[in-house]
Structure formats: structure tokens, C-alpha cells
Amino acid sequence: MRTLKKTLIAALALAGSTAISVAAEVEVLHWWTSGGEAAALDVLKKDLESKGVTWKDMPVAGGGGEAAMTALRARVTGGNAPTSVQALGFDITDWAKQGVVGDLNETAAAEGWDAVVPAALQAFSKHDGKWISAPVNVHSTNWVWINKAALDAAGGKAPETWDELVAVLDAMKANGITPLAHGGQAWQDATVFDGVVLSLGADFYKAAFIDLDPAALGGEKMVEAFTRLAKLRSYVDDNFSGRDWNLASAMVIEGKGGMQMMGDWAKGEFLKAGKVPGTDFVCIRFPGTQGAVTFNADQFMMFKVGDDAKAAQLQMASSIMAPSFQSAFNVVKGSVPARTDVSNEAFDDCGKKGMADLAEASASGNLFGSMAHGHAAPAAVKNAVYDVVTAAFNGELDPAAAAAELAKVVAAAKQ
Ligand code: BGC
Question: Most buried pick, 62, 153, 359, 372, via CB within 10 A?
Fold first, then answer.
């Protein structure tokens, strides 16, 4: 029996995405619980089911995945890790360092992943030269999703600069809608702040959030970033506190809200509601960030499992990496493929723009990991940033005090 399974694993690795014929199950921990997310997840579940792999669902709601990571810690501590876990950037590296992750190298080599996955993603998919997770997409956070009718009523021109953005928000306010649909949760505040910081310059974003340079974190430009954040706060409705991101998307979908500053998973909600880009909604880069991208990639990190579960785990990784799957999944999710060799044909205009922007930003050196979504710095730093950004958004720190505090807490957290 053991030999049979070993043969099966080897055959699977060699055959790439060939279906397996034994009954097998993968238990998957993830935070894809909104309508658009669930629709995308279904593409993966169905793909695996068609290959004889049963899906055991372990959903833990909460954008950005903080709650999911807490649930995961409990499972791993209990000696009962799931087969696979949705994870972001530095969280993957943190788990890898603990020696609990699996090894996908045979499948990766047989399928040539090294040649088709961008280096920015491989930095997290691999640890010590070993593939440990399968990247399913690339999202980015510096997007704004605008209700088309609300934009038309506000003059019709999508804003390209900060001043134009403020003018459109003012016009939407005058038109009696909530200009900025937002959910007051730390990760959502931080998602908006990714765009705000990037709008003050790609070099500034890099210095502050990638290099964690104290002068950038606590300097004049950061004071300006917090001033912009406070301005955005003035366009949010009174009931924003604790609101889930997809409910903020729904406000824009229904025209009660003018726009949402959110990663392109928001597009999944618009599509799920039957909305069409260019007709019902408009997607633009956060004004002032054109040409640059703050990305986060969802990966399915694989845990060490026994021989009985290994074949299903490798099948899952192989299925995720198949070009046809990367297209079908990301068309629904709102993200773009994690492989550079997937055609943009099936994607709508926002998806095509996402793919072109990603390639351009990568070529020009303006592709940066998202601070809000765990791709700029490890969780300790990210959480310190969350605290300051949320306090500033809620008016508990003025812009100057927020910048000073940011430099202080990041310095402490990065040690
Ligand atoms: C993930 C997305 C997800 C979003 C909201 C992000 O961190 O990368 O896949 O849709 O959180 O849940």
C-alpha cells in the first residue's frame, strides 16, 4: 500500500495536473466568505472535485486574514494542521521558519513553476529553496471602485490627482450620497492608507513601508499622508464602524455610496451582483498612484502531512498552478494570475488593466508589497502600523502625532 502511494505521488509529480483516481480529501482553512470570494472558491472546489479530491471547508471570516491566522495557530499548536491554508506574504515565511510546512519541489520542478511565477511572489512561495505554497492570484490594494452613475452626477471625470479626487468626493457629498463607502476595521483603514502613502510617491512608499526608514515613517510626507487620511475620514458615513468590506462594496453597487478604496477583491462583489465594468462601475488606480502597484498574493500554503494526504495535497497545488485554472479563478475573484504566461483574453477591462499595470510596475521597479496585506513587513510591524493608522483615522491622533508614533512603534516592532 505504501509503495502504491509513493508511486502515485511520483506519477502525479511527473504527470503534472493529471487527475488522480483515489478517494482523497483536502482540508482547507481560508477567509473567503463574501459572495464574490465564495464564487471564486467554488471554481477551485469544483476543479478539485472533478479530479476526485474532496474539499473539507474551514472558513474563518475576516479580511486580511488575521482571524484565520489565529485559528491556524490553534490548529498547529494542537498538532492538527489543515492540509492547506490561504496565507499572505510574510505570514507564509513565519510559518516556514517554524518547520511545519510541506515540500512541493517535485511537482514544482515537473511543472516548471520557477520559470512562470514572478520573483516577487517566489520570495514568499519558497523557503530555503523549497516550494512550500502555491500562489493562486495577485491582488493589488491601490484601486478605487466608483459607481458610474454617481460619478456621472459628480461631473463624469474619473479623478487622476488628489485634488481631483477631493473635488469628486465633494460633489458626491453635495449630491446627497455617502461619498466614501468604508468599513471601520483596522485592515480596511490600512488598505486605504496603502493608497494614500503611495500617492505621495513610489519612493516614499518604498522608504516608509518596505525599507521601514524612520525618517520617512516620521517625516513631513508622513504627516501629509495622515492629513490626507483625515480628509478621507470626513467623507465616510456615521455607521462605518466595524462594517465588513463587502457591505461597503454593496453601498457602492447600490449607489448609496460613491466609491470604495479597496483591493480588487471588491470587483468580485460587483461581478457577483451582475455589474459590468465601464457601464455600472469604474475602476481606477488610487489617484496619484498610476504606474505603481502595491500587491498582495493569496497563496495556498501546504502543511506537512502524512503519505495518505500527500497525493491530494500535491493535486491541489498542481491544479492551482494550471494556466487554465489561473484564468478561470481570477476572472471571478477580481485578481490577476500568479503566472506570467496566462492570456488576458478572458478578463474584463479592469482585469486587463490589472494585468498590464502589474507588468508595467514590475518592469519599472514600482511594484511593492502591500503593508496592509502582509507583503511589506512581518506581522509584528504590520500590526503596529494598523494600530496607528486606525487611531489616526478615528481622530485619536492628529497627523503630526500619528507620524511620530508610527516611526516609534515600527522601530520597536521590527526588532
Ligand atoms: C485577500 C483577498 C481577500 C481580502 C478580503 C485579502 O487579504 O488577499 O483574497 O478577498 O483579503 O477578504
Answer: 372
Cα of 265 vs centre of ligand 1, distance in Å, is: 6
Task: Measure the N-to-C terminal CA separation of the chain; round to a whole number of Å.
Answer: 49
Atom 12 of ligand 1, residue of closest alpha carbon: 63
Give the pLDDT mean for 29-56.
Answer: 97
72-116 per-position pLDDT tens digit: 999 999 999 999 999 999 999 999 999 999 999 999 999 999 999
Cβ neighbours, 10 Å, residue 268: 25
Sign of CA dihedral 122, 124, 128, 131: negative
pLDDT of 19 above 80: no
Each domain of the chain, given as residue ranges in start order, spans 2-139+297-354, 141-294+371-414
Q: Give, using CA atoms, the residue closest to atom 4 of ligand 1.
A: 63
Cβ(139) to ligand 1 under 6 A? yes
The CATH architecture annotation of domain 2-139+297-354 reads 3-Layer(aba) Sandwich (3.40)
Question: 64: which residues sit within 8 A by CB, 6+ positions away?
Answer: 31, 88, 187, 190, 191, 372, 373, 374
376 has a pLDDT exceeding 50: yes
Tell me if 2-139+297-354 shares its fold with 141-294+371-414: yes
pTM, two decimals, is: 0.94
For residue 16, pLDDT over 50 is answered with: no
**CA torsion angle for 207, 213, 219, 222 (degrees, to 10)?**
50
Hey, which CATH number is domain 141-294+371-414, 3.40.190.10, 1.10.3720.10, 3.30.70.1230, 3.40.50.1000?
Answer: 3.40.190.10
